[in-house]
Amino acid sequence: MKLSEIYTFLDSLSPFELQEKWDNSGLLLGDFNQDIQKIVLSIDVDEALIDSMEPNSLLITHHPLIFGGLRQLQFNQYPANLIQKMIQKNISNISMHTNFDQTHLNDYVATQILGYEI
Asked: 78: which of 6, 29, 67, 86 is 20 to 30 A away, CA to CA?
């Protein structure tokens, strides 16, 4: 399946335009024309996760790996060390942060975890 198809589905589920102005949700790493072989879900990205992933995968995270403007890519420092490994393995990354909070997570926490009725 093409990355663009997955992105379109995720955007219909939780529109990226709903993210807060300070956020960085959406496609952070990858090519919309890439064929995706496997999808992995995670809250965050770490080295052990990237090492365990197969090439040509899509990593959908809650928290963005790239949050502020990148000023340098020193591969011995975070987040460049993870970005380098992801590029080498052709791993794409879509973040669904505050857009997902607004459409799904906040409601779930309020009703299912805290027991509030809406």
From this structure: 6
